[in-house]
Amino acid sequence: MKKIAIIGANEFQNPLILKAKQMGFETHVFAWAAGDIGEKTADFFYPISIIEGDVILQKCREIGICAICSIGSDLAVHTVNHVARAMGFPCNSERCDRVATDKYHMRTAFMQANIPTPKFALAGQDFSLDAIEGFTFPMIVKPTDRSGSRGITKVEAPEEILPAVKAAQAQSFGKEAIIEEFVYGEEYSCECISFAGRHEMLAITKKYTTEAPHFIECGHVEPSDIPVRFIPMIRETVFRAMDALDIRYGASHPEFRLTPEGELRLIEIGARMGGDCIGSDLVEISTGYDFTRMVIDVACGNPPDLTPVKKPERAAVWFVFDHEDAARMRRALAETPELIWRASELHEIEDNAVTDSSNRFGYYITATPFDR
């Protein structure tokens, strides 16, 4: 039986484990032991931290895997590509690992490629306000190397900068933050797959957040509400940006804002599938494309199959932040169960406890026919 390594075992990685098993792979899953669902659904589970690249590489050689992959995790990108490079599997470059998982290096790469980007500055341990002289408020402060809305703050005045920088640095693995001028406009992402440097844009997602100051994502919808006339401009810009980051293989998740003037401003690009069920569920619901299977195919050295596997429907995922959201979720499950694609366990609600995407209380995904 073909053997595949999967990095990560949590609920958002589990669709990848299940898809690989459905495709006939023996699944070997690596993650720190935390009681996650993937520890049970995997054929073999190894309680090894996903950042232990050399340890995982040695084990993968012993197992004799034919591919390695992950979805929706920036932290897993380094280990996936480290193992893939050592074993001769198709993957992105070391430069891509660096610039696609560090927001400061990413902004620098965009600027060098003449891709529109807001003013930005690195905030290291020796940061002073002189670094942002000439910047215009409001600004966004965030860790250089985290995702999931961790450590993000919108600041409106000089006295708010240093506390926001300290909060972002505390969340950063490298203890660095990036400061950017704020870009106005509706927020979106596009979900892409690449093979040997050729990119395909599969879907555009409308993103809903809690807005300022922390912009925690509370829902996503596909198809988006973007007018068709903007699609060629979006495709051309994000593909150039992906080239600037040396993304050549696998899923990617460009996030951007569309300004009131109709201009695209990139926020960032993940060299991985969009989390929050975007890549694993919403793309398949809204387009019919089996995105998760594409990720596995590319990891195996095969071009992605763009044949639809189902009839497209409207797709949405909504997250639970409070008792009102929980009541809405229970009502959807009870009154329209035929529209529920998947739902998580609903955890006990604690008031004002959601500080980033990692501690929301649950979610549910809907698939609604276009004629309904």
What does this structure look like?
With 372 residues, this protein is α+β, with helices and mostly antiparallel strands. Helix content is 30%, strand content 26%. It has eleven helices and 16 strands. The chain has helices at 14-22, 38-41, 53-63, 74-87, 94-99, 103-112, 161-171, 231-244, 278-287, 291-299, 323-335, and strands at residues 3-7, 26-31, 44-47, 67-69, 120-123, 139-143, 153-155, 177-181, 186-195, 198-209, 217-222, 250-258, 264-270, 314-319, 340-343, 363-368. An eight-stranded antiparallel β-sheet has the order 13-12-9-10-11-14-16-15, with helices on both faces. Strand 1, helix 1 and strand 2 form a beta-alpha-beta unit. Helix 3 (53-63) crosses helix 4 (74-87). The N and C termini lie far apart (43 Å). The relative contact order is 0.12. The model has no long low-confidence stretch (mean pLDDT 95).
Comma- or semicolon-separated keywords:
26% strand; 372 residues; globular; alpha+beta; 4-stranded parallel sheet
Quick gist of this model?
The chain is of the alpha+beta class and 372 residues long. It is built from eleven helices and 16 strands.
Order of helices and strands: EHEHEHEHHHEEEHEEEEHEEHHEHEE
Measured as a percent range, the helix fraction is: 25-40%
Sheet-strand content, in percent, reads: 25-35%
Radius of gyration: 20 Å
- Mean pLDDT across all residues, rounded? 95
First-to-last CA distance: 43 Å
Please state the overall shape, judged from the principal axes of the Cα atoms.
Answer: globular
Q: Major β-sheet, in short? A: 8 strands, antiparallel
Structural class: alpha+beta
